[in-house]
């Protein structure tokens, strides 16, 4: 069979992130099954128009305002595809109306409040309305999502058929859970792009709240992005220079070492499709404290593998961290449960059901 992924970015794009890592893993699963797999994405400076990555043919053309036209033009010159995967990031490719084959819409999260993180009114409200309208327009198209939270958001927008398959992680859980007592300062870590929707400033303020309560705490910020200057300024204003360290971007090995060394991952994002870094952290024997938002309430089992804060505030985040590390026995129980659960998200377990699902759609089977 022949499969096509439409996605804004491909794995080599400098702005590629978790969505592209996950997409590549699933497409590798299709290619390993003997299928032909193509990926059409935006062009970016210095990129060749075509290349092959892990057996997947990458095609690049167009940008934000021209990609749909470029994709349609390229598509007409190709042999027939059995399934087109129309991956949305707020704005779709409208493939069901021009591809003339089976389609599945693939999204990681309903953006909703994320629009307000990047745009001011009225642009943010136009984005939210456009997203709801898009989901209604696609209501008869099957959707593929990574979490129940995303499924529920789509159903509220009128979508009729949604299939949930959790994401996998590239990280293998530690072979053995090494001792990590909660002694000395509580070591917190954030791992994400430093973008407005990640709200890393809440993690910084959480350190301040803990220290105000007499709880020694420090934070390592792993990642880079547009919010770095503002975060560094905030740290100075709060007098937390000694307790907050900016590690910048770290290669995979160093990132995992940072996760393993710390006691708690804090992730106060506006919304996630799943929360890849939560499971990666769990695999390193480190539980997470997250906000009560879509995706993160799916990747974290509250009170069992980590903690979901009561509210989306630095104070609530600090409350959850204090609860988690407040008793040694409780902390050790939670981190062990998180570590054990992370094994369920190995790619070897996650990919086969998705490949079967996509093959069924490509053959025209009705799944609902």
Outline:
Helices cover 38% and strands 17% of the residues.
Question: Any descriptors?
Answer:
globular; 2 domains; Rossmann fold; 368 residues; single chain
Give your account of this protein's structure.
The structure is a single chain. The protein has 2 domains: 2-168 and 347-362, Glycogen Phosphorylase B (Rossmann fold), CATH 3.40.50.2000; 186-345, Glycogen Phosphorylase B (Rossmann fold). The chain is built from 13 helices and 14 strands. The protein has helices at 18-32, 67-75, 114-118, 123-137, 148-156, 200-212, 228-237, 252-261, 276-283, 296-299, 314-325, 328-342, 347-362; strands spanning 2-6, 36-41, 50-53, 56-60, 83-87, 102-106, 143-145, 162-164, 186-191, 217-222, 244-248, 264-267, 288-290, 306-308. The chain has an 8-stranded mixed β-sheet, with helices on both faces. A 6-stranded parallel β-sheet has the order 11-10-9-12-13-14, sandwiched between helices. The longest helix is centred in the last third of the chain and has 16 residues, at 347-362. 44% of the residues are buried.
